[in-house]
Amino acid sequence: MASKGAVTEIENRFFPQERNGRRIVVLDSATHSHAHAASAEARPNADVVVNASYAGVYCARLLQEMRPVATIGLDCGVGKDGAGISGLWYFEALGIPAAAADITGVEHGNGADLYENGFISKVNGYAYALGVAPGMAVKDAGDLMLDQPVDGIELDVTNRQVVEEGLNGHNVVCTNSIADALPEDCNTNVLCTAGHTGRSVIEYITKFRPYGFICSDGAMGKNSSGIAALGPANEAGIPGAAVSANTARMGDGHSTYFDGIISASNDLATDVGVRVGMSAVEAARLLVNR
User: Fold this and answer.
1) Beta bridge partner(s), residue 262
2) Does residue 274 carry a pLDDT above 90?
3) Has residue 152 got a pLDDT over 80?
4) Are 44 and 107 found together in one domain?
5) Are 215 and 195 in contact (CB under 8 A)?
6) Of 10, 183, 258, 269, which has the highest C-beta tally within 10 A?
7) Cα separation of 286 and 264, whole Å?
8) Distance between CA 36 and CA 65 in Å, rounded?
9) Is residue 98 part of a domain?
10) CA 150, CA 156: separation in Å to the nearest integer?
11) How do strand 189-196 and strand 240-243 relate by DSSP bridges?
């Protein structure tokens, strides 16, 4: 790796797309970011950077020197503590769309292979708001990132979305927290949310009275406190369940719904068929169509 003060020739760098005053820059490594930023070809606040390094915090710090408008890296299998994609949330805090590609389909350190043959596996909230999604080709994701609004992306921090329409006007709705429930959810919608199911959420469940709910178990915790709200919800006549925090990302209601596996449920949810080990998608369908 070149020293911080050196500007070296960057091999294999290329620019496959340019549009709306923005450009895609393909690099073999995030460590080339300093050399690019110092070059005559640098365009701060105008480049979508596709680089064949892991999408972690260290690489995000390097890439930030280029002041990118968006980035795509490698997921490197996600790895311990999610370190392979932790840079996605670094960039999310800065309001920058970022995504990672599945490492099983591309070569480490080969930016051209990533751009030509890669497929997205993970995205942050800003990339998702642009339409970037798992399974999308890296080329297509780059195109979407080029076309992001000049005045920035408005990110709905609640992440609210109707993901399934049920019977009799009931729907399954994702949102990041049960505290983000709306009056329209009362006796109408099954909420898939991403906070724990501890005692502090009882007030929200009984206030908003959703038709049903699925939250996270927060890894259970001492005295199974991560699911303490299931009992009081049952007493209030509200069926509910929790997904394992090992299967779905806390703070992301979409992950609760799409990734989550049920780890606990109250009696009312059990009575309609919700079971431990069931996918949250299946459990939500049982709750909304009961």
Assistant:
1) 243
2) yes
3) no
4) yes
5) yes
6) 269
7) 15
8) 9
9) yes
10) 18
11) unpaired
Q: What does the pLDDT read at residue 5?
A: 40
Q: Which domain holds residue 221?
A: 161-288
**Cβ–Cβ under 8 Å, residues 217 and 263:** yes
Q: What is the mean pLDDT of residues 112-128?
A: 95
| Mean pLDDT for the stretch of residues 256-261 | 96
Mapped onto helix, strand or coil, the DSSP state of residue 152 is coil
Q: Are 113 and 106 in contact (CB under 8 A)?
A: yes
Strands (DSSP E) contained in the chain are 18-19, 22-27, 47-54, 70-74, 98-101, 120-123, 161-165, 171-174, 189-196, 212-216, 240-243, 262-265
Report pLDDT for 9: 65
Strands 47-54 and 22-27, by their bridges, are parallel
Structure tokens at 241: 């369940």
> How far from chain centre, in Å, is Cα 152?
19
| Residue where a domain stops, chosen among 146, 180, 197 | 146
CB 134 within 8 Å of CB 121: yes
Q: Quick one: 52 and 115 in the same domain?
A: yes
- Backbone phi, then psi, for 157, in 5-degree steps? -70, -15
As for how many domains the chain has, the answer is: 2
Mean pLDDT of 280-288: 98
Is-contact 102 82, C-beta < 8 A?
no
Q: Which residue has the tokens 């068929």?
A: 273
Maximum CA extent, the chain: 68
**Distance in angstroms (rounded) separating the CA atoms of residues 255 and 240:** 17
Are 22 and 85 within one domain? yes
Return all residues near 274 (Cβ < 8 A) that are at least 6 apart: 239, 241, 262, 265, 283, 286, 287
Residue 62 contacts residue 89 (beta carbons within 8 Å):
no
Domain boundary among 91, 122, 146: 146
